[in-house]
Write a structure and sequence with these properties.
The complex is a heterotrimer of chains A (about 280), B (about 270) and C (about 250). Chain A is mainly α. Chain A is built from 11 helices and no strands. Chain A folds into 2 domains: about 40 residues; about 200 residues, MetI-like fold, CATH 1.10.3720.10. In chain A, about 80% of the residues lie in helices and about 0% in strands. The mean pLDDT of chain A is about 85. Chain C has 7 helices and 10 strands.
Chain lengths: ~280, ~270, ~250
């Protein structure tokens, strides 16, 4: 009991210290200016608001944005969009990561396979993910397959590179050490190569989360009837910037959360490493 | 054991083999419908072998030549190029400046960091509909998007690169009498350049990808628009030509940037970073 | 009457250690360094000799006490107090020559003059032929020579060296010690050299300053009257061994 109380007090004092710190104060000023300036620009009673960009539909005030959120929730569009986007991303991510990691792993281990697979992999990597959209629409139509496949391609490219480097960058000396200690191929793979390759592989996996979001947002803008990207499109079609803002905020929030999850996974996997400079 | 390779020749051979394998197999498959009556195949296979789905290699190449001859390719390429370059240059310079300011002056860092952290998770492409709403379909929206994207991608590496310039270089410069200008120009920036340039490389690729995406979404010119139009008119071969052109450009850009980087960082020990 | 180049007066320094405890690194250190003499500072690990050197250079402000260089009080790092670091501080993005000319550019010296000066010092440290080499192509010993050359080039009043040969392997270190002695013999400068290597301390010095363990105080100052220019062989001579015995006694090893 004593220990818990002590811990609580130290957490509280740490919190107070950080709130009172210089960085916090300046940060507050920064945020305040940012939101404050927007508030001023979007303030409904300003006379110049009838002109150009400052029209209320283009620069909605905070109250209007909140109303819109309420509306979207009532209509159920908010939840549905989040669900749809997340569903597509998770499917695409899992498949893409599996393919990418395995391919990258094998390519890292076997030079011959690497050289053979390098041309098609490089070509795929250099195609901007969204350039595939028209082709996939022609091939598979505007459906789930197109979008998921797109994410698969994008995630695959990123995770492949991560896994590849994870294997290739293993210092030769670990192989030598394992061999003189008598490891057979199975032990070598399981207990040396795989764990040593994890850090960079997971770095790639984390990066791929961001890539997946980029792809799904754009793909949903181009070819979708539901989802977060669709919300962005709808905002534009109905000329309501507030809807776009909400979409952007949601995307940002979800992307942030998923990235954090990725970071936790990375930190856990690399818990044995000397801490470099982590973002 | 794993990485055994006889000679460098084998490497080139495998590359060549791989490329020709892909090329040949595609040519063969896409031309099957010409030689064989596809009605004997099951429905799905028949659909896949149809020239509208897998245009034969000849058609693709012919169209490529045609577009170059009548100039459409060049015109739209130019649109895409110019948007990319303008956006890149402005965006990276701004990102570099901001990254430097935030890394050099703590107060600026503290003030702007929360705003940055708020905007960081948002993929830049999300702003495309907003910009189109505000500024209409056209060059301005796309360029603005590229500026924003390049800005974000350049800011992080610049910030970290400058912050991580080893202390000892600052000390050495000071005992040799350098003033702030010399310190920045001859010590800090060169020391930080490898990482910043690596970020620039990503910015280039990202910018190209975003231009294409933005053109697909809302534009009346550019390679992305060409591809989009071809898709609407069900011209699969044109779409494939467009993609081929895109990849080639991406590859060339990256090669140029990589070459530039290797020259500018020729003083570095060849490790990996 | 020898001229005093550097004077440290009553240097006491405290700093906050782990857990917020105040640690006294140096206590009331007073030392006069005379013109063109080579002084080495030696002491057990943690005795504050590196801290002392940093204070002399102006990187750290002492909690108490003052440092005077040629009569003027020291308030921060400046080119009149050159510093050769333990770690590699040669700028890898500049060639050898550019590194050496760096301080000269800072001083505003025109191009031809710079060229002449850098040539002189490249020759002095024995790096002729490597003027346009990249630091990545040079060995540890050669990099140290570049560092020494570029510090010499700005013609500082006094040169401070913080265990510069520490990271080098034993053989390179031995060669560099002799090289430094030769360089110094050809181009006299006032030098303060910190080391933990007893042989090195005696071999290079005119005077050896021995510090106590923390908090660092000056325990003894030994005069080294071995003939110059110094050659490696003298570390086997009777005089050298006598001096070494004295140092070992002062440090408490024997």
């Amino acid at each position: 009991m004593e220990k818990l109380k002590f811990k609580f007090i130290t957490i509280k004092s740490k919190l107070f210290k950080s709130i009172a710190s210089v960085s916090f104060r300046y940060g507050l000023i920064g945020l305040g200016c940012f939101f404050g300036i927007y508030g001023i620009l979007s303030f409904p009673l300003l006379p110049i608001r009838k002109q150009l960009v400052l029209r209320p539909e283009f620069l909605p005030f905070y109250t209007e944005i909140i109303e819109k959120i309420d509306f979207l929730i009532k209509v159920g569009l908010l939840q549905k969009s989040i669900e749809e986007s997340l569903f597509r991303i998770s499917q695409g991510y899992v498949i893409g990561a599996l393919i990418g990691c395995s391919l990258g792993f094998i390519m890292g281990l076997y030079r011959r396979i690497e050289y053979f697979l390098d041309p098609p992999v490089t070509i795929i990597r250099y195609v901007p993910a969204l350039a595939w959209v028209p082709l996939f629409i022609l091939w598979f139509g505007i459906g789930e397959l197109t979008k998921v496949l797109l994410i698969v391609l994008g995630v695959m490219s990123v995770t492949l590179v991560g896994a590849y480097h994870g294997v290739r960058d293993i210092p030769d000396i670990y192989f030598k050490a394992a061999k003189v200690l008598g490891a057979n191929t199975k032990m070598l793979l399981l207990k040396v190569v795989f764990p040593a390759a994890l850090p960079q592989t997971f770095a790639g996996l984390r990066l791929a989360i961001g890539t997946a979001w980029m792809i799904i947002v754009a793909a949903e803008i181009i070819a979708s009837k539901a989802g977060l990207g669709y919300i962005l499109l709808a905002g534009r079609n109905f000329a309501q910037a507030s809807i776009i803002f909400i979409g952007i905020a949601l995307i940002g929030l979800l992307a942030f959360i998923t990235d954090r999850i990725g970071r936790v996974a990375y930190m856990y996997v690399t818990r044995w490493m000397k801490r470099g400079l982590e973002v | 054991m794993f990485n055994k390779l006889s000679k460098d020749n084998e490497k080139y051979f495998l590359y060549f083999f791989s490329l020709s394998f892909i090329f040949l197999s595609y040519t063969i498959i896409s031309n099957i419908y010409l030689c064989v009556d596809t009605n004997v195949f099951p429905d799905l296979l028949k659909k896949m072998l149809h020239p509208a789905f897998l245009p034969p290699t000849q058609e693709i190449l012919l169209f490529l030549v045609k577009s170059i001859m009548d100039g459409t390719l060049q015109i739209h390429l130019f649109s895409s190029f110019s948007r990319t370059f303008i956006g890149l240059i402005v965006g990276t310079i701004l990102g570099f400046l901001m990254g430097f300011l935030m890394a050099w002056f703590k107060k600026i860092d503290y003030t702007l960091d929360p705003i940055y952290e708020l905007l960081r998770p948002i993929p830049p492409i999300s702003f495309v509909t907003l910009f189109i709403l505000w500024f209409g379909i056209g060059d301005f929206s796309i360029i603005l998007l590229i500026i924003y994207g390049s800005f974000v991608v350049t800011l992080i590496p610049t910030y970290h690169a400058i912050k991580e310039v080893p202390d000892i270089y600052f000390k050495a410069a000071k005992v040799l009498g350098a003033n702030t200008k010399m310190l920045l120009l001859k010590v800090v920036f060169p020391a930080a350049s490898p990482r910043i340039l690596a970020g620039f490389r990503y910015a280039v690729m990202g910018a190209w990808g975003m231009v294409v995406a933005a053109e697909l979404i809302g534009s009346t010119s550019g390679i992305g628009y060409l591809i989009s139009k071809s898709q609407a008119t069900l011209d699969t071969h044109a779409v494939l030509v467009g993609i081929m052109v895109l990849v080639s450009c991406a590859f060339i850009f990256d090669a140029i940037v990589r070459f530039l980087i290797s020259y500018l960082t020729r003083w570095m020990k060849r490790g990996r970073w | 009457m020898r001229k005093v180049k550097l004077r440290a007066e009553g240097i006491t320094h405290m700093y906050k250690g782990e857990g917020g405890r105040e640690i006294k690194a140096l206590e009331d250190v007073t030392l006069d360094i005379y013109e063109n003499e080579f002084v080495t500072i030696i002491g057990p690990s943690g005795c504050g000799k590196t801290t002392f050197l940093n204070i002399l250079a102006g990187f750290i402000k002492p909690t108490q006490g003052k440092v005077f260089c040629e009569g003027k009080e020291v308030t921060g790092p400046a080119p009149d107090r050159g510093f050769v670091f333990q770690e590699d501080a040669v700028f890898p993005w500049m060639t050898v020559r550019d590194n050496i000319e760096f301080g000269l550019i800072a001083k505003g010296i025109p191009k031809e003059e710079r060229r002449r000066i850098s040539n002189k010092f490249i020759k002095l440290v024995g790096l002729t032929g490597f003027e346009n080499a990249w630091p990545k192509e040079l060995s540890g010993g050669m990099l140290k020579r570049v560092d020494i050359a570029r510090t010499y080039a700005v013609d500082p009043a006094i040169m401070l060296m913080d265990e510069p040969f520490g990271p080098l392997d034993a053989q390179t270190r031995s060669i560099m010690q002799e090289e430094l002695a030769r360089i110094w013999f050809e181009a006299r400068k006032t030098v303060i050299f910190v080391t933990h290597d007893i042989d090195e301390a005696i071999f290079l010095a005119d005077r050896v300053v021995i510090f106590t363990p923390r908090p660092g105080r000056i325990k003894t100052i030994l005069e080294v009257n071995l003939p110059r220019p110094r050659v490696k062989k003298i570390i086997l001579s009777k005089e050298f061994l006598k001096l070494k015995e004295k140092v070992l006694l002062e440090l408490g090893f024997i």
